[in-house]
Amino acid sequence: MLKKLVVAFAFMVLSLHPAQAEIGEDGLHKEDWFALTFRDIADDIATAAEQGKRLAIVFEQRGCIYCTKMHEELLSDPEVRDFIREHFMVVQYNMFGDEEVTDLDGEVLTEKTAARKWGFVFTPTIAFLPEEAPEGKSVSEAAVAVMPGAFGKWTFLDMFRWVSEKGYEGEEHFQKYHARTIERLREQGRLDAE
Question: The Thioredoxin-like fold domain covers which part of the protein (predicted)?
Fold first, then answer.
C-alpha cells in the first residue's frame, strides 16, 4: 500500500511540474515539438500549410533570461503550449548562429545575418509568417506580426490567437483584441497577474 502511495505522490508531483525543455549544445532551450527544418522559409511556410498550421520563427540566444522565462513559464503551460502546437509550426533560430537560412527573397544567410537583415535585436523575437510565401519579399517585409520579447501568459497567448484568427487583416488592432480578452478573463475570474 505504501508503495502505491509513493508512486501516486511522485506522479502527482511530476504532473504539477511539467518537464522543462532541455538545453542544447548551442545553449538554447529545446522543445520536443519545435520543428527541425532546412530553414528555407518558403518551404517551411508550405510545410506548415500542409499541416493546417502557420509558420512562426523564434529567435533566441544563449543565456537569455527572457527566453528561459518563455520556455519555463509560457511554453510549459498546457493552455499556451497546446494552442501553439495545434495552430503553429515553430522553428527556432539562434540570434548569433551560423546555420544557413534561405530568406523568402532567395538570399542565403546565416542565422545571425538573417537576424540583422530582418531587424531582430531582442530575444526572444517571434515572427509570424503569412499562409503563403510571397515572392520577392524578405521575412521582415512578409511577416504579418512580430512579437519582440516574452510577455505574460495572456499577452503571449493572445498574439498567437490573434494571428491564428487573422486579426491583422481586420480593423481591430492587437491591443484592442488583447484588452477584450483581459476583460473577458476578468469577468470569468481567470485573470492571473501579467
Answer: 48-132
Which pLDDT score, from 0 to 100, does residue 20 have? 65
Q: Please state the rounded mean pLDDT for residues 80-92.
A: 98
- Report how far residue 58's alpha carbon sits from residue 128's, in angstroms, rounded to the nearest whole number: 9
Query: Is 0.70 surpassed by the pTM of this model?
Result: yes
* Distance separating alpha carbons of residues 86 and 79, to the nearest angstrom: 11
Q: With beta carbons less than 8 A apart as the criterion, state whether 99 and 110 touch.
A: yes
Cα dist from 45 to 50, 51, 93, 165, 173, whole Å: 9, 10, 15, 17, 24
State the residue for C-alpha cell 490573434: 162
Do the beta carbons of residue 158 and residue 177 sit within 8 Å?
Answer: yes
Best CA proximity match to 194, nearest among 153, 150, 162: 153
Domains with residue ranges and CATH for the chain: 21-150 (3.40.30.10)
Per DSSP, the three-state class of 119 is coil
Sequence letter at residue 161: R
Question: Taking the CA of residue 151 as centre, how many other CA atoms within 13 Å lie in the half-sphere pointing to its CB?
Answer: 16
Q: Judge whether 140 and 148 are in contact, CB under 8 Å.
A: no
User: What angle do helix axes 153-164 and 78-87 make, rounded to 10 degrees?
Assistant: 20
Task: Tell me the three cell numbers of residue 25.
Answer: 549544445
